[in-house]
Specification:
The chain is mainly alpha-helical. It is built from seven helices and two strands; from the N terminus they run H-E-E-H-H-H-H-H-H. About 70% of the residues lie in helices and about 5% in strands. The protein is globular, with a radius of gyration of 19 Å.
Length: about 210
Protein backbone atom coordinates (compact mmCIF):
# COMPACT_ATOMS: atom_id res chain seq x y z
CA UNK A 1 0.00 0.00 0.00
CA UNK A 2 2.87 2.37 0.77
CA UNK A 3 4.14 2.34 -2.82
CA UNK A 4 0.68 3.13 -4.14
CA UNK A 5 0.30 5.92 -1.58
CA UNK A 6 3.67 7.46 -2.42
CA UNK A 7 2.85 7.49 -6.13
CA UNK A 8 -0.58 8.96 -5.42
CA UNK A 9 0.93 11.65 -3.17
CA UNK A 10 3.27 12.74 -5.98
CA UNK A 11 0.51 12.82 -8.61
CA UNK A 12 -1.98 14.66 -6.41
CA UNK A 13 0.68 17.15 -5.29
CA UNK A 14 1.52 18.00 -8.90
CA UNK A 15 -2.17 18.36 -9.76
CA UNK A 16 -2.71 20.64 -6.76
CA UNK A 17 0.04 22.89 -8.12
CA UNK A 18 -1.05 22.65 -11.78
CA UNK A 19 -3.06 25.93 -11.56
CA UNK A 20 0.29 27.70 -11.18
CA UNK A 21 1.34 26.48 -14.65
CA UNK A 22 -2.04 27.43 -16.09
CA UNK A 23 -1.80 30.86 -14.46
CA UNK A 24 1.68 31.46 -15.88
CA UNK A 25 0.45 30.57 -19.36
CA UNK A 26 -2.41 33.05 -18.94
CA UNK A 27 -0.34 35.63 -17.06
CA UNK A 28 -0.39 38.39 -19.69
CA UNK A 29 -4.16 37.97 -20.18
CA UNK A 30 -5.06 38.09 -16.50
CA UNK A 31 -5.94 41.47 -14.96
CA UNK A 32 -4.00 42.88 -12.01
CA UNK A 33 -6.97 42.16 -9.71
CA UNK A 34 -8.52 38.70 -9.91
CA UNK A 35 -11.80 37.57 -8.23
CA UNK A 36 -10.95 35.05 -5.51
CA UNK A 37 -14.19 34.87 -3.52
CA UNK A 38 -17.83 34.61 -4.55
CA UNK A 39 -21.00 35.41 -2.60
CA UNK A 40 -24.20 33.38 -2.26
CA UNK A 41 -25.45 35.00 -5.47
CA UNK A 42 -22.50 33.51 -7.37
CA UNK A 43 -20.96 36.91 -8.07
CA UNK A 44 -17.41 37.96 -7.09
CA UNK A 45 -17.31 39.89 -3.82
CA UNK A 46 -13.59 39.88 -3.12
CA UNK A 47 -10.52 40.36 -5.33
CA UNK A 48 -6.83 39.63 -4.88
CA UNK A 49 -3.67 40.38 -6.81
CA UNK A 50 -2.82 38.33 -9.87
CA UNK A 51 0.27 37.04 -8.06
CA UNK A 52 -1.77 35.73 -5.12
CA UNK A 53 -4.34 34.13 -7.42
CA UNK A 54 -1.70 32.31 -9.47
CA UNK A 55 0.75 31.37 -6.72
CA UNK A 56 -0.89 31.95 -3.33
CA UNK A 57 -4.10 29.92 -3.67
CA UNK A 58 -2.43 26.74 -5.03
CA UNK A 59 0.33 26.97 -2.38
CA UNK A 60 -2.24 27.30 0.42
CA UNK A 61 -4.09 24.25 -0.91
CA UNK A 62 -0.78 22.39 -1.24
CA UNK A 63 -0.09 23.06 2.45
CA UNK A 64 -3.53 21.66 3.33
CA UNK A 65 -2.83 18.64 1.13
CA UNK A 66 0.55 17.91 2.76
CA UNK A 67 -0.93 18.31 6.26
CA UNK A 68 -3.57 15.70 5.36
CA UNK A 69 -0.83 13.38 4.12
CA UNK A 70 1.22 13.80 7.30
CA UNK A 71 -1.73 13.38 9.68
CA UNK A 72 -2.78 10.21 7.88
CA UNK A 73 0.75 8.80 7.93
CA UNK A 74 1.11 9.20 11.71
CA UNK A 75 -2.35 7.88 12.58
CA UNK A 76 -1.97 5.27 15.39
CA UNK A 77 -4.59 3.16 13.61
CA UNK A 78 -3.14 3.82 10.17
CA UNK A 79 -3.20 0.11 9.33
CA UNK A 80 -7.01 0.38 9.20
CA UNK A 81 -6.87 2.97 6.41
CA UNK A 82 -7.06 1.04 3.15
CA UNK A 83 -5.37 2.19 -0.04
CA UNK A 84 -8.70 3.18 -1.61
CA UNK A 85 -9.78 5.26 1.38
CA UNK A 86 -6.37 6.94 1.59
CA UNK A 87 -6.43 7.59 -2.16
CA UNK A 88 -9.86 9.17 -1.92
CA UNK A 89 -8.59 11.50 0.82
CA UNK A 90 -5.60 12.52 -1.27
CA UNK A 91 -7.69 13.36 -4.32
CA UNK A 92 -9.98 15.86 -2.61
CA UNK A 93 -7.52 18.78 -2.47
CA UNK A 94 -6.31 18.59 -6.11
CA UNK A 95 -9.92 18.45 -7.31
CA UNK A 96 -10.71 21.55 -5.23
CA UNK A 97 -7.56 23.27 -6.50
CA UNK A 98 -8.47 22.64 -10.14
CA UNK A 99 -12.08 23.69 -9.54
CA UNK A 100 -11.04 26.95 -7.86
CA UNK A 101 -8.58 27.75 -10.66
CA UNK A 102 -11.19 27.18 -13.40
CA UNK A 103 -13.69 29.47 -11.66
CA UNK A 104 -11.08 32.12 -10.81
CA UNK A 105 -9.36 32.28 -14.19
CA UNK A 106 -12.63 32.10 -16.14
CA UNK A 107 -14.11 35.09 -14.32
CA UNK A 108 -10.84 37.00 -14.58
CA UNK A 109 -10.89 36.49 -18.36
CA UNK A 110 -14.51 37.57 -18.67
CA UNK A 111 -16.15 34.14 -18.92
CA UNK A 112 -18.75 34.32 -16.16
CA UNK A 113 -19.50 30.72 -15.24
CA UNK A 114 -22.46 29.93 -13.00
CA UNK A 115 -20.47 29.47 -9.78
CA UNK A 116 -23.40 28.23 -7.68
CA UNK A 117 -24.34 25.63 -10.30
CA UNK A 118 -20.76 24.39 -10.66
CA UNK A 119 -20.22 24.33 -6.88
CA UNK A 120 -23.42 22.37 -6.26
CA UNK A 121 -22.53 19.74 -8.88
CA UNK A 122 -18.98 19.34 -7.59
CA UNK A 123 -20.00 19.32 -3.91
CA UNK A 124 -22.84 16.89 -4.54
CA UNK A 125 -20.60 14.48 -6.43
CA UNK A 126 -18.01 14.69 -3.68
CA UNK A 127 -20.55 13.77 -0.98
CA UNK A 128 -21.88 10.90 -3.09
CA UNK A 129 -18.39 9.47 -3.52
CA UNK A 130 -17.50 9.93 0.16
CA UNK A 131 -20.84 8.44 1.21
CA UNK A 132 -20.14 5.38 -0.91
CA UNK A 133 -16.87 4.81 0.95
CA UNK A 134 -18.00 5.64 4.50
CA UNK A 135 -19.43 2.16 5.28
CA UNK A 136 -16.10 0.64 4.20
CA UNK A 137 -14.05 2.96 6.41
CA UNK A 138 -12.55 1.13 9.40
CA UNK A 139 -11.90 2.75 12.78
CA UNK A 140 -9.08 5.33 12.71
CA UNK A 141 -8.26 8.82 13.99
CA UNK A 142 -8.00 10.62 10.63
CA UNK A 143 -10.73 9.69 8.16
CA UNK A 144 -14.41 9.28 8.96
CA UNK A 145 -16.83 10.38 11.68
CA UNK A 146 -14.35 10.86 14.51
CA UNK A 147 -16.30 11.55 17.68
CA UNK A 148 -15.74 10.11 21.19
CA UNK A 149 -18.38 7.36 20.87
CA UNK A 150 -17.17 6.02 17.52
CA UNK A 151 -13.52 6.14 18.54
CA UNK A 152 -14.20 4.35 21.84
CA UNK A 153 -16.34 1.55 20.39
CA UNK A 154 -15.62 -0.23 17.10
CA UNK A 155 -19.20 -1.49 16.83
CA UNK A 156 -20.47 2.07 17.27
CA UNK A 157 -18.03 3.21 14.57
CA UNK A 158 -19.19 0.53 12.12
CA UNK A 159 -22.91 1.06 12.67
CA UNK A 160 -22.62 4.84 12.53
CA UNK A 161 -20.69 4.74 9.26
CA UNK A 162 -23.09 2.22 7.71
CA UNK A 163 -25.92 4.62 8.51
CA UNK A 164 -24.03 7.76 7.45
CA UNK A 165 -22.98 6.42 4.03
CA UNK A 166 -26.44 6.36 2.40
CA UNK A 167 -27.33 9.63 4.17
CA UNK A 168 -24.31 11.40 2.66
CA UNK A 169 -25.09 9.97 -0.76
CA UNK A 170 -28.69 11.18 -0.50
CA UNK A 171 -27.48 14.61 0.63
CA UNK A 172 -25.08 14.76 -2.30
CA UNK A 173 -27.87 13.87 -4.71
CA UNK A 174 -30.11 16.62 -3.27
CA UNK A 175 -27.29 19.15 -3.64
CA UNK A 176 -26.67 18.11 -7.26
CA UNK A 177 -30.38 18.29 -8.09
CA UNK A 178 -30.54 21.76 -6.56
CA UNK A 179 -27.95 22.85 -9.10
CA UNK A 180 -30.03 21.47 -11.94
CA UNK A 181 -33.56 22.51 -11.01
CA UNK A 182 -33.44 25.41 -8.54
CA UNK A 183 -31.82 28.80 -8.20
CA UNK A 184 -31.18 28.44 -4.47
CA UNK A 185 -28.16 26.13 -4.46
CA UNK A 186 -26.46 27.93 -1.58
CA UNK A 187 -29.58 27.69 0.60
CA UNK A 188 -29.96 23.97 -0.16
CA UNK A 189 -26.34 23.34 0.81
CA UNK A 190 -26.81 25.27 4.05
CA UNK A 191 -29.78 23.04 4.87
CA UNK A 192 -28.26 19.72 3.78
CA UNK A 193 -24.81 20.04 5.38
CA UNK A 194 -26.05 20.29 9.01
CA UNK A 195 -28.34 17.29 8.45
CA UNK A 196 -25.69 14.91 7.08
CA UNK A 197 -23.26 16.13 9.76
CA UNK A 198 -25.47 16.09 12.86
CA UNK A 199 -27.65 13.04 12.22
CA UNK A 200 -24.72 10.56 12.35
CA UNK A 201 -23.47 12.25 15.54
CA UNK A 202 -26.87 11.94 17.20
CA UNK A 203 -27.19 8.33 16.01
CA UNK A 204 -23.77 7.48 17.44
CA UNK A 205 -24.70 9.07 20.76
CA UNK A 206 -27.98 7.10 20.76
CA UNK A 207 -26.05 3.85 20.26
CA UNK A 208 -23.69 4.83 23.08
CA UNK A 209 -26.53 5.57 25.51
CA UNK A 210 -28.30 2.37 24.47
CA UNK A 211 -25.22 0.35 25.29
CA UNK A 212 -24.77 2.11 28.64
CA UNK A 213 -28.34 1.39 29.79
Amino acid sequence: MKKINNRTVIITTLLTLSPVIIGLLLWNKLPEQVPTHFGFDGQPDSWSSRTFAVFGLPLILLLVHLICVKITDIDPKGENITGKIYGLTLWITPVVSLFVSVITYSHALGYELNVNFAASIMTGMMFIVIGNYLPKCRQNYTIGIKIPWTLADEDNWNRTHRMAGPLWMAGGLVIMLSGLITGNQALVMLLVLPVITLVPVLYSYHLHRQKQS
